Fold this protein.
Amino acid sequence: MAERVDTVAILGLGLIGGSLARALRATGFCRQVIGYGHREPSLRRGLELGVIDDFTLDLDKVIRRADILVICTPTLVAADVLASILPRLQGLAQAPVVTDAASVKGNLYQAAREACGGSFPPGFVLGHPIAGSERSGVDASRADLYKNHRVILTPVAENDSDAVTLVRDMWLATGAEVVAMEVAQHDAVLAATSHLPHVLAYALVDALAQSDASEEIFRCAAGGFRDFTRIASSDPVMWRDIAIANKTALLDAIDLFSEHLGRLREAVATGDADGMHATFTRAKAARDEFATILAERGQGKQD
Ligand SMILES: NC(=O)C1=CN([C@@H]2O[C@H](COP(=O)(O)OP(=O)(O)OC[C@H]3O[C@@H](n4cnc5c(N)ncnc54)[C@H](O)[C@@H]3O)[C@@H](O)[C@H]2O)C=CC1
Ligand SMILES: O=C(O)C(=O)Cc1ccc(O)cc1
C-alpha cells in the first residue's frame, strides 16, 4: 500500500492502541507509528516487541510529529487527554487529525466541545473499534485484531470531511469494516450489546463467588458458564470508566433487562411452561440469526 500519511501517533499503547499500531505498520498505511504515554514501561515494551518505531512522553512533541493522533487510553482518561491536546492545536498551521478508540462517545463529544469554548473541533473524529478481548496491555496486541470487525465512526456536522475520510481510511487499512452512526445511537446500542453483558457477567461471577458454596459452584461449572462469564475477566478499571461515562444509556439497558428477567422469574415461579418456552424459542432464533451474521463476517469461531 502507498503511504497515506507520514506519522501516526498512538496515545495509550495497550491492547487497542498496540493492535492498531501493529496493523498500520504491517499494511504500510504510514511511514512510522510512534507511541505516547504517561509512563515509560509499556512504551519501551512496545518498542522491544516491534509494535512502534519510537516513543515520547512529551505531548507537545507528539503533536508536532504526527499527522494523526489516536487516543487509546481508558475512557475517562481519554477525555482528559483530549482536553490537554485540543487547546494546543489552536493556531497550528498543520494540526494533526485527532481520533479515539474509546468505548463511549457522548462524554468525549462533550469534553471536546468544552475544551474548545463550546464549539466542536472539526479535526476531531470520534471512533470506536468493535473488537477486543478480556485481555489488556501491549503484550496482548495483535495485528489482525480488527480484521473483519466493525469500526463505528460517529462524525458530527461540524467535522471536516477530509479528517473523517482520513480516519476512515486508517481503519480500512487494518481490514475493518467502517460504519457511521450518531453519537447517542452509538451509546445506546453499545450499552445494550456490550456494556450490559459485561455488567451481567461481573454481577453473576461476583454473586456466585460470594456465596457459601462458591468452591463447589466453580468446580462444577461447565462450558456454558465459561462462555457466559469470559468477559468478567476484563479490566475492572476500563469497565468502571465505561459504566460511569455511559451511565444513562447503561441504566436504560439494565432496567429493560431487569423487567424481562422479572417476567421470566414469574414464569418460573408459576410453572408457566408456555411462557418460558416462548421466551427461550424467541431468544434461540435471535441468537441463531446472530451466529449466521458472525459466520458471514468470518468471526464465527472467535471468542
Ligand atoms: N479492550 C477492549 O476490548 C476494547 C477497548 N476499547 C477502548 O479502548 C481503550 C483502550 O483499551 P485497552 O487497550 O483495552 O486498554 P489497555 O489497558 O490495554 O491500554 C490502555 C493504555 O493507556 C495507557 N494510559 C493510561 N493512562 C494514560 C494517560 N494518562 N496518558 C497516556 N496513556 C495512558 C496505559 O498505560 C495503557 O498502555 C479504552 O478506552 C477502551 O474502552 C475499545 C474497544 C475494545
Ligand atoms: O471481549 C469481548 O468480547 C468484547 O466485548 C471486547 C470489547 C470491549 C469493549 C468494547 O468497547 C468493544 C469490544
In short: The two ends are 30 Å apart (CA to CA). The chain has two domains: 5-181, 186-271. Residues 123 and 173 are 20 Å apart (CA to CA).
